[in-house]
Amino acid sequence: MPAPALDMLDVALLEALHEHPRTGLQEIARIVGVARATATARLQRLERAGIVSGFGPEIDVTAAGFGVQAFVTLEIAQGALEEVHRELAAIPGILEAHATTGSGDVICRVAASSHESLQQILVQLNRSASVVRSTSVVALSCVVPWRTLPLLRSEAAPGSGRSPSSR
């Protein structure tokens, strides 16, 4: 099933939730300028579609003591993606991993409390029989943090998303 097209009301609701994460839905509806029932129905639709996937706190791993971060590209043995998936999931310092195109097969975002801890993670990765080669680069600073709202805003269907009778 294709993802539903987002309109400006959906984006406004997501922006309000992003800017006021601890605010109740009644207040979010007031901020956006719609009825609570409208905001509730829209949010439920976004959740069912998987667009909104959680309401947990955003965690800053640097502030939590894991200030050494790196990106590690792995070249893996032919047909070993499932095994690598299990191995990567077992390493707590792997924040995320993506299968990729290009010279590497998987790219991992890694966080560690120190350079020594990062080295231990890299050694653990290289001990895997599924990993043929790894290349790592240490992140010095974050230039653009993870974000989604600019993308959603740029592609939102014009109009408020309300039915023609409510305009």
UniProtKB/TrEMBL annotation:
One of its GO terms (molecular function) is sequence-specific DNA binding. PROSITE patterns: HTH_ASNC_2. This is DNA-binding Lrp family transcriptional regulator. One of its GO terms (biological process) is response to amino acid. Keywords: DNA-binding, Transcription, Transcription regulation. The keyword Transferase does not apply. The keyword Oxidoreductase does not apply. Residues 6-67 form the HTH asnC-type domain. GO terms for cellular component: cytosol.
